[in-house]
Specification:
91 residues, mainly alpha, 4 helices, 38% helix, globular
């Protein structure tokens, strides 16, 4: 099931430990629990996509910079997750 815009597979337990809240995923909240905004979430929602894999520009530079960010990235795993979601849940 798709829970994030960028392809991060949300881990409810880790989220609860880190932030002290139950997060249902960014598809179901107005803003990220970890910041005031998320440029990837904002972009996806502006284009009316469930996740980045639905975008005609996928994978764009914004998503790549997010996926390969030294501090928060996951070496591109989120890009591959969006690719899988696009196959499983075509728009």
């Amino acid at each position: 099931m798709v829970k994030s815009r960028c392809g991060i597979v949300c881990d409810t337990e880790k989220c609860k430990e880190a932030f002290g809240v139950d997060c249902p995923g960014c598809l179901y909240i107005s803003k990220p629990i970890w910041a005031d905004s998320c440029p990837v979430k904002d972009c996806c929602e502006g284009k009316k996509h469930n996740h980045c894999g639905e975008c005609e520009d996928f994978p764009c530079e914004l998503l790549k910079s997010f996926a390969y960010d030294e501090e928060h990235g996951d070496d591109g795993a989120m890009i591959e997750q969006c690719r899988e979601w696009a196959k499983l849940y075509p728009k």
